[in-house]
Amino acid sequence: MQASMVSTGKLVVISGPSGAGKSTVVRELLQKARLPLQLSVSATTRAPRPGEQEGREYYFLTKEEFERRRLNQEFLECKEVFGRGHWYGTQKAPVLNGMKDGNWIILEIDVQGALSVFENYPDAISIFVHPGSMVELERRLRNRQTEDEEAIRRRLEVAREELAFRHKYKYEVVNHTVETTVELIQQLLEQHQ
Ligand code: 5GP
Question: How far is it, in rounded angstroms, from Cα 74 to Cα 68?
């Protein structure tokens, strides 16, 4: 189904390697929004990290429940991210309802998920956020101190692969500081009003 057929709202896809500061940028963007932005809360089979809350960062589902919803076609897109058996997906209903209400729905999703969204929603406003260099990304991932060495190594590998797809996005933003990145994204979005 094409977005234009169902709504007056817009779809905004934001991707970028984990550790690029994407989540912070999105959080700030939502707070400072001069537009009716609404974050799509994804579903995942991974366990919550300390401080994460059900329905705020993610809907945490069992593998069985995720699979049931996937077979029931309840996802707009879903992917097994990082090849480690953790699934992530965007639930269709809240996104389409939000757009019907005129909201601009933000999907913070990985590159593979984004590519499948672009096929169905070519009008999506897509933004790739990255830290500028792999060295900087590694520094940020280590500062975060949420993952072990093996997980960091894997994320860097995935980041390298993801960076290769940045030209598939309408916009590419280097996240030097959260403030300037948020302001830049606001301006980009306002051009689509
Ligand atoms: P994390 O486990 O660090 O929260 O997220 C890992 C990755 O999963 C991030 O790159 C994030 O963009 C991606 N992700 C989060 N939600 C979704 C989703 O609904 N679909 C897809 N395809 N990727 C997602």
Answer: 9
Give me the helix-helix angle, 178-190 and 22-32, nearest 10°: 60
Q: For residue 157, what is the domain's CATH number?
A: 3.40.50.300
Query: Which atom of ligand 1 approaches the CA of 81 most closely?
Result: 8
Q: How far from the centroid of its chain's Cα atoms is residue 159's Cα?
A: 14
Ligand 1 near 42 CB (within 6 A): yes
Q: Look at the chain and report how many structural domains it folds into.
A: 1
Q: Domain of 29? A: 3-190
Q: Is this prediction's pTM over 0.85? A: yes
Q: Three-state SS across 57-80?
A: CEEECCHHHHHHHHHCCCEEEEEE
Q: How confident is the model at residue 3 (pLDDT cuts 50, 70, 90)?
A: very low
